[in-house]
What does this fold into?
Amino acid sequence: MMFNRLNAYRIMWVLVFFDLPTETKKDRKNYAEFRKRILNDGFQMFQFSMYIRHCSSRENADVHIKRAKSILPSKGHVGIMCVTDKQFGMMEIFRGKEQVETPETVQQLELF
It folds into this structure.
């Protein structure tokens, strides 16, 4: 029980949310490239301009935050936030007025 509780505070979720311009062909290309690169880094779409990634530790989350920062587009707004699995699990999600389950934590084998 104690191990699971500690894991809920050690496991992290990295959230990348963005509002990028799409007026010109170059803007759309930059948008697509940024989206493609965060997907290739293991992020998954949570909402249209919000992507999430499960990380086994704060150190692992820092690696993915650094990667996201390294590919920031020259225009637009990008936010990067890191929350614990415990905090992420307390999120309430609704589809219309109907409440739905939060995404499940990825099961990961830890060897000591």
